[in-house]
Design goal:
By secondary structure, this protein is α/β, with parallel strands linked by helices. The protein is built from nine helices and 15 strands. Helix 3 packs across helix 4.
């Protein structure tokens, strides 16, 4: 396929959504162990706008390096166009989805075609379309690796101890903060799949949506403080983070745990006095694990909520939507 070109979104500089450019670029050649995917849809995730912004919110010591111009994006769903040597389990014409090369920032998914490591891919779940499949990989794997099975031995750059999920069953009370967002709505559903009692925290506009997903209790953080209502919780999954994240420590019973998905501020002395733990990890690409989690999408035990879709050339509008917050599920780019 030498000389062929495609269209892709690229960053030539850092800044706001306006720096996303729709360029003509060479069609990628899959290396050994990779497949060429004709992209149908791309999931939009926080790391995409972190990259656009120059990764300023990531501690310098853990900040990956990259060169401009760069194509953002890690979540993809599409059709295998070509298979390089060393690939087993995928053939031309297969529908696939995956989280590409994460925790790096070299997924290059905002494009008409992408060369994808076969180890990062899984067959697209039957019964869901490419838009919903593209909305799943990063957020679903994040919830899965925090709550169900870590699935890798890579140390977290954010803590010395290895993260270990806790057992979830009918005797477990789980609070999900940011329950309407990408990671949050999957975490709620996975906890319910395991039989747990789930308390969802979000703004009031999301209550009916979250109760439909199975939330047993709902707390509107815009009208009340969750830590004043929720008590004796076994596990908090905080998909929001930020300077107020430590307030959720007070909702936990002794022996409970708080899992921060995003950066938070926690005091070691306070956690010791409360008898609770704080533990996190960093999601990593994992095709076989995504295939396992994807079976829940096939059966309908877990579903992907779509906040909005935008054509690939309108990636700027998708990022502007993300910047307004209060996202219900996932934002997805569609590729003609």
């Amino acid at each position: 396929m030498p000389g062929r070109t495609m269209r892709a979104i690229r960053l030539h500089e850092h800044g706001g959504p306006e720096v996303l450019r729709y360029d003509e670029v060479p069609l990628p050649e899959p290396a050994p162990g990779e497949v060429l995917v004709r992209v149908q849809a791309v999931g939009v995730n926080p790391p995409d706008w972190y990259l656009r912004d120059g990764l300023r919110n990531i501690p310098p010591e853990t900040r990956p390096t990259f060169d401009l111009p760069v194509t953002p994006g890690t979540d993809v769903s599409g059709v295998v166009e070509a298979v390089a040597p060393g690939v087993e389990g995928f053939s031309v014409g297969d529908e696939v989805f995956g989280l590409l090369r994460f925790p790096g920032f070299d997924g290059r998914a905002y494009a008409e075609y992408v060369a994808a490591p076969a180890s990062d891919l899984a067959h697209k779940p039957a019964g869901i379309d490419h838009v919903h499949a593209a909305g799943a990989p990063m957020s679903l794997l994040t919830a899965w690796q925090f709550l169900i099975e870590l699935g890798h031995d890579h140390p977290s750059p954010f803590q010395a101890a290895r993260h270990r999920p806790v057992a979830l069953d009918a005797d477990t009370r789980v609070l999900v903060n940011g329950a309407a967002g990408g990671v949050g709505h999957f975490a709620l559903q996975l906890a319910k799949w395991k039989g747990a009692h789930v308390i969802a925290v979000a703004s009031g506009t999301h209550e009916s949506f979250l109760r439909e997903l199975g939330a047993d209790e709902f707390i509107d953080y815009t009208s009340t403080r969750p830590e004043e209502l929720a008590h004796d919780v076994d596990l908090v999954l905080d998909a929001v983070g930020g300077p107020d994240s430590s307030r959720f420590l007070r909702t936990l019973k002794r022996g409970g745990a708080l899992f921060p998905v995003f950066f938070g501020a926690y005091d070691d002395e306070e956690t010791a006095n409360l008898g609770v733990t704080v533990s996190g990890t960093q999601v990593r690409s994992h095709g076989p694990q995504l295939a396992e989690a994807g079976r829940l999408l096939t059966t309908g035990a877990v579903r992907v909520a779509i906040d909005s879709t935008f054509p690939l050339p309108d990636a700027r509008a998708a990022h502007e939507r993300a910047s307004r917050g209060h996202i219900q599920g996932k934002i997805v780019l569609t590729v003609a």
